Inverse folding.
């Protein structure tokens, strides 16, 4: 068994046995949903319904129901797209990269982080779809054999790269997540007694037997998928950033974008994971598994990525001056001092300044403060995308075309709708799926569980 | 040998059994129940159908079927049974005719497709207008398909037939004539010799009655007419030749827009603005509101309208040697005039005959008559004498007018409120109004003649002495409409129709003037084909000059100024308001303010800011409102906007607004004519107060300055240009590379498109020095390319669909980052210099839009054109975002069907759709569109050349914008044609490409603007 230094803080608190872990994780699955779950899913469903209504109105009437105009062709749509894709980064990073780095603390959070990733990527995928003027022809973006003569997609277009990047990322993430779920589904299958759930979980468990061979394959496939997923974590947001970086618009045309976007994505992803888990550990009594230590680790990731993002912002500013390109220089001065100054400073405050307070141990181990900060970071990262997209577009080369962007209720409704759908999905996940990888957790119980760590070692030298 | 073989049909026959014999003997070998039925009397009698009935039904059926076959069912689309002469599906026909509405005169060519007029272009052959056309004229085709047109004559508000209508009028007219009553005909200025002859015959035929024809101009030039009458004995306007004038001084005359014969002047003006000629006219403009002409002036001085007279006198005095007290710019103008005697023009827009008398004296002193001004070849485009219409109103109010006939004019709307034409008109015993659509006057009339549109009418015009043109219909009347002239002939009891009458008049009057054609029919057909007949020489009257300047000067001294003055002006789109119902014109941005769909009170921004009014407006920023009282007429809650260049202490307002538009009868703006007391175009009797309200203003450009960016608009002064060092006025973009500085165009990652070597390589050149910003190209493009109208609300959301726009930049001082902050550069100067820059798709050879489209819906043609494939487009808008010129337009809604536009977009009804160009796809919702360089016209030009087995010649193909440009600022052509104008233009020292440093390698070149100013003059 893997030995762990005694001075490392335990990752599983309390006097837990293997059975306890199973019970704790399955409590939500076998038990009845509590009132707060019903209230939460009620609100989320209303938001989702409102959003779906807005989306249908949008598709039925036209993109003009949004506040876009001749100069600002993208605003909330692509802002939301990039925001959701960014959020969708944490899950795979946690499960794949941390797996490769053998970070045990990932085990408490990877399941829900991955679920969040899947749902966030789904929400992200909504936006490029509905932002099309003619969504009914969306299949044109796939390189399908067709009867239109030698008509092919444009492989030069970063938007097309997005299609491939996101669909690949989504499918790999989904498979990775599902593979991890199989042993846990099997555990549930074995425990539940009601007929219908048993049948469903039987189906979901894919005939998992739990023998050594199966576990061996499980470990191997996890490693393979982690190896596949890790480059994707970096490629997806790099490619998303190329939507902007390959353009000619000042403020978009920036070579720094790929690393800057990836770190921003990890930054926002961890913030969203924190938002969700801080509530979940409380409501579902998982404090013993998702400990202060876990939260602290995530906060450290937030400081690191937030600082990278901060450096990127400053680099952009420096280069805009150093390049001597007047359009570039204006684009950045306009960001900071133009009509959208508030968005820029909201971004700067939320993303660069506020995470720095996590240098204080007291703050990064405070649950309330961390929750507050996770919201701030999510707001900041939304503004980052808004600033990049809208403030670059609204005043580009020709001053005659400079405009402002004014969102309509449909812009707001569609955004709220995706948040609603996301939470509905996540709440359903929390209710019916094992929110912690209970079988994997059992592997670290003996090495990182509190009661075992506190025991004197039995083996004598 | 006969064959004795016998064949049996079967064994039964061979056996010939008794049963077989029995079967064979019967005709129907199965049992038939006929006998049962016919034999049963009871059954037979209970049946309703007798033999007689049966025959009846049979007969009816056959007859009905054959009758129905005689008439073809009526479908909406009827193929030609006998195809009209020269009407070939898919092939356009052109008819030369002319446009005159009392405000604009233009020789035009009407393009028809399948019998429908769809486009109006300038007649390039015309020596008068030289093919120039403006937005008002080229948009007038849409008025033909106005849903609200009268479809039949009206009596007492009810539709009636022409026979009843004409009989009633004839009776009333003859009653009035017999009783010796008064008959008055009120029209706009009429230049038609035949109409005038007809009216005079009407007068002559009824000597017992008091019949008079009164004409008036809503935007009056009465002062000039009177001054010319007093000075030369000719109550007409002179003709000008700005192309020969080296010095042009305009005092309040917007000669590019609202001054009489503006189209002629505009095309002449451009000829004197070519710095390559070695000289360039110098244009001084003294005015209160920033007019279109003012935006193009080299030296502009804002002043109150009451000071126009004093300025004229100051110039007059200066020329006479009294040089003291002249303002520096007045002095400069006078000096320049003095050094260009005989090669200068002084114009004045005042409607005061005293001022005009002095202007005449100045031009006389400068020796301009006979050189740049010709009173011996007068222009008849304004004839209205303000006193005449005032006299008519007096007569009407006295109740002595029996029959009042109004044609074309809308006096209830455009005569000042203090005249109370509405009240006066109600006192006429019979009022007859001829109008194409309901207007303020026609709704007050007892009888309304549904007038034919000018594209459905026959007429003739004599706009300028020696220039006779024919108006011919290009479509038969869409509705049951007639011209006044035809009705008048019926009322007079004349035989024939007006067409015959015109022909007779021409045969008698015009035909003898010429000597080319021996036969009248030849002459007539040639004139009809050309659209006009122009005499090279005109009878020289050598008008003698009477100097009235002394009385003028003393009268001017009495003109009083006031703290606040208002100037009435005409907007480029709406003009006098004759077509204010035309959505293309309403949506055409004003060239100066870029505001659409409204008139407003324009105020100097400094004063507006001091009064606490918003000076930034458009999009979601609203204008403040004021209550303003002008000559006792109160306008409540009207918007006020800050207009750089507006003279301090003045405001200005556009006439022509305040009429209803659309199916919902929305009123656009407010009627400023009401306050034009005495038809004077300014007033000193103004007071205003903040109303505290907000008003939504729609503008297409919310940012006014160019922010010191030197590669968008390039301009220089004449001296710098003439020194000939290109780097001083049009430096190339150099990049620092490891091999030393390199031209931006030589540093390239991409392979060039193969357009430079083979086939065509289309491109365009736009001369910023010629472009005056009039917007004629915009409306021309609208009608050529089926550009949808989106309305005020969508313009406020910055979603106008125009494929070509004219960017207007005001200067800020000084335009440099070294001395000014960005915030300061956003503020235009108080009296700014202005640049107009037409902007459309630049057809970049390295197009940023092409690389980013995921579905390859926008691609480069092998002729250098950036093409949109509408049916491939999925509407990601990525191309529009990545366009550095922001010329791509997205179909945010289904403009052809969505409710929001039902009231605005003419193509939402069957009638309005007839104006659509069948060669251009109407775009679906959700697709991107943009300038195609009129690809349909290129294709037509190529096909025509191919049919004639010759290469495409330079000038064969014109885009909608280039053909509509009155100053020929836009040139289209083929770079691969070594003789093309566009290739030469691209190689000129003034040529540059907008934001060339982005590396788009666009196919549109611009020519640096050259101002004729001393560098230190602001």
């Amino acid at each position: 068994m893997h030995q762990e230094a005694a001075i490392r803080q335990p990752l599983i608190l309390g006097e837990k046995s293997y059975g306890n872990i199973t019970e704790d994780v399955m409590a939500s699955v076998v038990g009845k949903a509590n009132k707060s779950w019903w209230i939460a899913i009620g609100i989320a469903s209303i938001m989702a319904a409102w959003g779906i209504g807005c989306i249908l109105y949008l598709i039925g009437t036209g993109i003009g129901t949004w506040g876009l105009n001749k100069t600002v062709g993208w605003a909330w749509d692509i802002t939301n797209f990039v925001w959701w894709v960014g959020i969708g980064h944490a899950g795979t990073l946690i499960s794949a990269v941390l797996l490769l780095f053998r970070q045990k603390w990932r085990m408490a959070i990877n399941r829900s982080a991955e679920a969040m990733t899947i749902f966030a990527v789904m929400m992200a995928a909504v936006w490029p779809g509905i932002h099309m003027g003619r969504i009914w022809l969306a299949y044109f973006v796939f390189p399908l054999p067709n009867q239109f003569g030698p008509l092919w997609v444009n492989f030069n277009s970063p938007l097309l790269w997005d299609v491939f990047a996101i669909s690949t990322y989504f499918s790999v993430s989904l498979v990775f997540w599902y593979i991890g779920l199989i042993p846990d589904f099997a555990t549930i299958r074995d425990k539940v007694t009601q007929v219908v759930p048993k049948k469903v979980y039987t189906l979901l468990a894919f005939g998992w037997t739990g023998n050594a061979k199966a576990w061996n394959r499980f470990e191997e496939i996890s490693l393979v998928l982690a190896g596949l997923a890790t480059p994707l974590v970096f490629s997806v947001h790099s490619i998303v950033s190329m939507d902007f970086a390959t353009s000619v618009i000042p403020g978009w045309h920036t070579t720094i974008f790929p690393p800057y976007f990836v770190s921003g994505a990890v930054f926002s992803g961890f913030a969203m994971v924190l938002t969700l888990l801080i509530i979940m550990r409380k409501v579902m009594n998982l404090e013993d598994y998702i400990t202060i230590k876990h939260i602290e680790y995530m906060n450290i990731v937030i400081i690191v990525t937030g600082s990278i993002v901060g450096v990127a912002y400053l680099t952009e500013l420096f280069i805009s001056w150093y390049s001597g390109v007047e359009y570039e220089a204006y684009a950045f001065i306009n960001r900071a001092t133009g009509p959208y100054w508030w968005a820029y400073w909201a971004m700067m405050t939320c993303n660069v300044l506020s995470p720095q307070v996590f240098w204080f141990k007291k703050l990064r181990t405070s649950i309330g403060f961390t929750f507050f900060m996770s919201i701030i970071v999510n707001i900041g990262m939304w503004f980052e995308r808004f600033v990049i997209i809208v403030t670059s577009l609204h005043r580009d080369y020709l001053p005659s075309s400079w405009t402002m962007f004014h969102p309509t209720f449909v812009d707001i409704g569609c955004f709220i709708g995706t948040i609603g759908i996301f939470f509905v999905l996540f709440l359903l996940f929390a209710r019916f799926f094992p929110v912690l990888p209970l079988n994997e957790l059992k592997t670290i119980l003996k090495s990182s569980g509190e009661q075992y760590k506190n025991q004197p070692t039995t083996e004598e030298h | 040998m006969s064959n004795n073989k016998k064949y049996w049909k079967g064994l039964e026959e061979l056996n010939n059994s008794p049963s077989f014999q029995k079967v064979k003997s019967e005709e129907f070998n199965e049992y038939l129940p006929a006998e049962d039925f016919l034999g049963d009397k009871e059954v037979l009698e209970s049946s309703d159908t007798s033999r007689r009935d049966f025959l009846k039904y049979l007969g009816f059926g056959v007859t009905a079927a054959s009758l129905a076959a005689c008439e073809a069912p009526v479908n909406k689309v009827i193929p030609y049974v006998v195809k009209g002469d020269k009407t070939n599906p898919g092939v356009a026909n052109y008819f030369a005719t002319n446009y005159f509405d009392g405000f604009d005169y233009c020789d035009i060519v009407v393009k028809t497709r399948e019998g429908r007029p769809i486009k109006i272009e300038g007649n390039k052959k015309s020596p008068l207008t030289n093919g120039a056309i403006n937005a008002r004229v080229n948009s007038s085709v849409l008025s033909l398909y106005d849903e609200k047109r009268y479809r039949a004559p009206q009596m007492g508000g009810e539709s009636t037939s022409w026979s009843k209508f004409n009989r009633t009028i004839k009776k009333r007219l003859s009653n009035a004539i017999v009783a010796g009553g008064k008959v008055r005909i009120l029209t706009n200025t009429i230049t038609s010799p035949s109409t005038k002859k007809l009216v005079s015959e009407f007068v002559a035929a009824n000597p017992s009655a008091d019949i008079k024809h009164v004409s008036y101009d809503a935007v009056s030039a009465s002062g000039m007419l009177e001054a010319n009458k007093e000075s030369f004995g000719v109550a007409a306007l002179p003709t000008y030749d700005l192309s020969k004038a080296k010095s042009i001084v305009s005092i309040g005359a917007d000669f590019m827009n609202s001054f009489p014969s503006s189209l002629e002047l505009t095309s002449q003006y451009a000829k004197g603005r070519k710095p390559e000629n070695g000289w360039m006219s110098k244009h001084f403009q003294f005015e209160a509101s920033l007019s279109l002409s003012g935006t193009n002036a080299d030296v502009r001085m804002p002043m109150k309208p009451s000071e126009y007279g004093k300025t004229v006198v100051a110039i007059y005095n200066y020329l006479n040697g009294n040089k003291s007290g002249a303002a520096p710019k007045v002095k400069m103008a006078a000096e320049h005039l003095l050094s260009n005697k005989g090669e200068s023009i002084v114009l004045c827009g005042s409607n005061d005959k005293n001022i005009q008398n002095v202007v005449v004296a100045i031009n006389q002193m400068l020796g301009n008559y006979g050189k740049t001004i010709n009173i011996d070849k007068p222009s008849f485009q304004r004839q209205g004498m303000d006193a005449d219409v005032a006299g008519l109103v007096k007569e009407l109010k006295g109740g002595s007018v029996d029959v009042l006939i109004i044609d074309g004019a809308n006096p209830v709307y455009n005569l000042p409120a203090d005249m109370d034409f509405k009240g006066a008109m109600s006192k006429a015993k019979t009022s007859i109004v001829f109008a194409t659509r309901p207007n303020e006057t026609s709704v007050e009339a007892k009888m309304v003649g549904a007038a034919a549109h000018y594209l459905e009418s026959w007429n003739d015009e004599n706009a300028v002495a020696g220039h006779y043109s024919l108006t011919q219909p290009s479509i038969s009347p869409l509705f049951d409409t007639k011209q006044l002239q035809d009705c008048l002939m019926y009322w007079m009891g004349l035989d024939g129709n007006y067409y015959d009458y015109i022909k007779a008049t021409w045969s008698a009057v015009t035909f003898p003037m010429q000597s080319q054609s021996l036969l009248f029919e030849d002459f007539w057909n040639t004139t009809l084909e050309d659209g006009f007949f122009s005499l090279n020489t005109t009878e020289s009257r050598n008008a003698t000059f009477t100097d009235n300047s002394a009385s003028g000067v003393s009268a001017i001294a009495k003109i009083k100024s006031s703290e606040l003055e208002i100037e009435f002006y005409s907007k480029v789109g709406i003009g006098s308001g004759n077509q204010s119902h035309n959505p293309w014109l309403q949506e055409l941005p004003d060239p100066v303010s870029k505001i659409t769909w409204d008139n407003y009170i324009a105020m100097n921004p400094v004063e507006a800011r001091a009064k606490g009014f918003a000076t930034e407006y458009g999009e979601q920023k609203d204008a403040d409102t004021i209550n303003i009282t002008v000559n006792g007429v109160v306008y409540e809650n009207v918007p006020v906007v800050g207009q750089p260049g507006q003279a301090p202490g003045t405001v200005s307002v556009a006439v022509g607004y305040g009429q209803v538009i659309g199916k919902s009868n929305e009123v656009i703006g407010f009627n400023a004519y009401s306050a034009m007391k005495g038809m004077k175009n300014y007033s000193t009797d103004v007071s205003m107060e903040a109303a505290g309200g907000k008003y939504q203003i729609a503008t297409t450009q919310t940012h006014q300055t160019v922010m010191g960016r030197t590669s968008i608009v390039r301009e220089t002064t004449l001296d710098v240009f003439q020194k000939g060092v290109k780097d001083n006025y049009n430096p190339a973009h150099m990049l620092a590379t490891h091999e030393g500085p390199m031209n931006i165009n030589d540093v390239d990652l991409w392979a060039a498109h193969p357009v430079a070597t083979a086939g065509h390589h289309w491109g365009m050149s736009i001369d910023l020095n010629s472009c005056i910003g009039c917007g004629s190209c915009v409306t021309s493009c609208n009608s050529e390319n089926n550009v949808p109208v989106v309305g005020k609300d969508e313009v406020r959301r910055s979603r106008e669909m125009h494929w070509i726009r004219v960017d207007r930049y005001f200067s800020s001082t000084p335009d440099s980052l070294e001395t000014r902050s960005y915030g300061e550069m956003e503020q235009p100067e108080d009296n700014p210099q202005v640049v107009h820059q037409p902007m459309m798709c630049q057809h970049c050879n390295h197009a940023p839009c092409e690389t980013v489209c995921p579905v390859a819906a926008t691609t480069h043609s092998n002729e250098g054109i950036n093409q949109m494939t509408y049916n491939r487009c999925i509407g990601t808008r990525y191309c529009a975002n990545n366009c550095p010129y922001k010329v791509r337009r997205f179909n945010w809604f289904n403009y052809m069907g969505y409710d929001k536009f039902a009231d605005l977009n003419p193509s939402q009804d069957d009638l309005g759709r007839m104006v659509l160009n069948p060669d251009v796809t109407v775009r679906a919702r959700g697709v991107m569109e943009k300038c195609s360089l009129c690809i349909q016209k290129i294709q037509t030009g190529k096909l025509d050349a191919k049919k004639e087995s010759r290469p495409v010649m330079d000038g064969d193909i014109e885009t909608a914008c280039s053909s509509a440009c009155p100053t020929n600022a836009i040139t289209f052509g083929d770079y691969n044609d070594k003789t093309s104008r566009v290739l030469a233009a691209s190689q000129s020292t003034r040529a540059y490409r907008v934001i060339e440093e982005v590396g788009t390698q666009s196919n549109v070149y611009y020519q640096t603007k050259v101002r004729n100013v001393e560098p230190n003059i602001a």
About this structure: The mean pLDDT of chain A is 86. Chain A touches chain B through 54 residues (CB under 8 Å). Chain A is about 70% helix and 0% strand.
